[in-house]
Write a structure and sequence with these properties.
By secondary structure, this protein is of the alpha/beta class. The chain has a single domain, classed as TIM Barrel (Alpha-Beta Barrel), CATH 3.20.20.70. Helices cover 45% and strands 12% of the residues. The strands form 2 sheets. A 10-stranded parallel sheet has the order 2-3-4-5-6-8-10-11-1-12. The longest helix is centred in the C-terminal third of the chain and has 18 residues. The structure holds S-adenosylmethionine and iron/sulfur cluster (SF4). The site of iron/sulfur cluster has 9 residues, from loops. The site of S-adenosylmethionine has 17 residues, from loops.
Length: 364
């Protein structure tokens, strides 16, 4: 097995069956895979980690994804929307602390008021930072014109996870209606690319009904779509969701975590110059999850800078960490972890995807 892993890792291009074999690597052989990923990471994207301050803008959502704790059907939540001032205070915190970049994430809303509110916020974030704070939006599926307006107002990156690249599995995770349509989600990714965003996507790992073949397909999907950034992590149960009924049938937390690390490492080797996030879900399953993800090839972390009083209402899944930690506490804890991973924090650097920059240079 060790030999066959080494042979695969020497290849320029991984086939589907290569990826399946790598994903099936035994725990005691994973070090070879992680070492290769670290090597590629230092060679192609340096050992720098970029901070993105995560602002959980609102838990109001029109959708009903079967896995998500803030789905419209969950009536146990208090719904909130941050005020303009609250968002701008978060942005200032990020800017003043050298984060250079924020992510505005939210439950999905598709209406003019929402579009205008985000436009207003973008305009003001650009004003307070002299255009220096990079903004990633993660606001779900929108019309082309809305994406276009937000780009004009200063957003440069968009994160829209495909969740799974397998249509059949997608249909098991979402209600069968127009709001939850695989083709529409795929089309949104294509629109974002056309509009010149740095495009990010991702999947959940260890979902009910998901196989190793599906995950290999997901990695091939990122490569085929020539994606600039990926945020992926383990699926985690939430008791007030329909998928919770399968909680006894899924992989253990330890297995889901290890599988997620392998996904990150293989992706780093396949797509050398993209940005890969060490997600909060990794930290949820393992206290040092983000640090381990950095060692497996990730180069972005997203500390939560949402005002503390809202965090318990943005519970996508159970046991989400850092719900009552002050921002500076989180920062100190991350700084320590990053040192352990032998990386350095790229304060005040926007950390645009190198992959994006290279593909732009090719075009121009
Ligand atoms: N509403 C937007 C969307 O769906 O693209 C952005 C916010 S949504 C909460 C962000 C991500 O949370 C989703 O893309 C999904 O992958 C992740 N998520 C939701 N429920 C999850 C769960 N139970 N376990 C792990 N990740 C989850
Ligand atoms: Fe809404 Fe996003 Fe959760 Fe789906 S994953 S229910 S769109 S917040």
């Amino acid at each position: 097995m060790q030999n066959s892993i080494n042979n695969i890792l020497e290849k320029e291009f991984f086939t589907h069956s290569d990826i399946v074999k790598l994903l099936s690597t035994n725990e005691n052989k994973c070090e070879i895979l992680f070492r290769k990923a670290t090597e590629i990471k230092s060679k192609y994207v340096d050992n720098k980690v970029y901070f993105r301050g995560l602002i959980e803008f609102s838990n109001k959502c029109i959708k009903n994804c079967y896995y998500c704790g803030i789905r419209a059907g969950n009536k146990t939540l208090k719904r909130y929307v941050l005020s303009d001032d609250e968002v701008l205070e978060c942005a200032k915190y990020a800017f003043n602390n050298g984060f250079a970049s924020i992510v505005i994430q939210s439950g999905e809303q598709q209406n003019k008021d929402f579009e205008q509110k985000i436009s207003y916020l973008l305009e003001n974030i650009m004003k307070i930072s002299n255009g220096k704070l990079s903004v990633t939006l993660s606001l779900g599926e929108q019309f082309e014109n809305t994406y276009k307006i937000w780009k004009e107002k200063g957003a440069t990156r968009y994160l829209l996870r495909i969740e799974t690249s397998n249509r059949e599995l997608y249909s098991k995770l979402h209600p069968a209606n127009k709001l939850h349509n695989y083709d529409n989600r795929l089309n949104c990714l294509k629109l974002l690319r056309k509009l010149d965003y740095q495009v990010g996507t991702g999947v959940m790992i260890g979902l009910p009904f998901q196989t190793i073949d599906h995950l290999a397909d997901d990695l091939e999907f990122f490569r085929d779509m020539d994606i600039d950034m990926v945020g992926m992590g383990p699926y985690i149960e939430h008791k007030d969701t329909p998928l919770n009924q399968y909680r006894d049938q899924i992989l253990s937390k330890k297995e889901r975590f290890l599988l997620s690390l392998k996904m990150i490492a293989i992706l780093r080797i396949m797509m050398k110059d993209i940005n890969i996030a060490a997600t909060t879900a990794m930290q949820t399953l393992d206290k040092q999850g983000r640090e381990k993800a950095l060692k497996a090839g990730a180069n972005v972390v997203m500390p939560n800078i949402t005002p503390i009083q809202y965090r318990t209402d943005y519970l996508l899944y159970e046991n989400k960490p850092c719900l009552n930690k002050e921002n500076n506490e989180c920062q100190k804890c991350l700084e320590a972890g990053i040192l352990i991973a032998n990386d350095t924090i790229a304060y005040n650097e926007p950390g645009d995807s190198l992959h994006f920059q290279k593909r732009k240079n090719k075009i121009n």
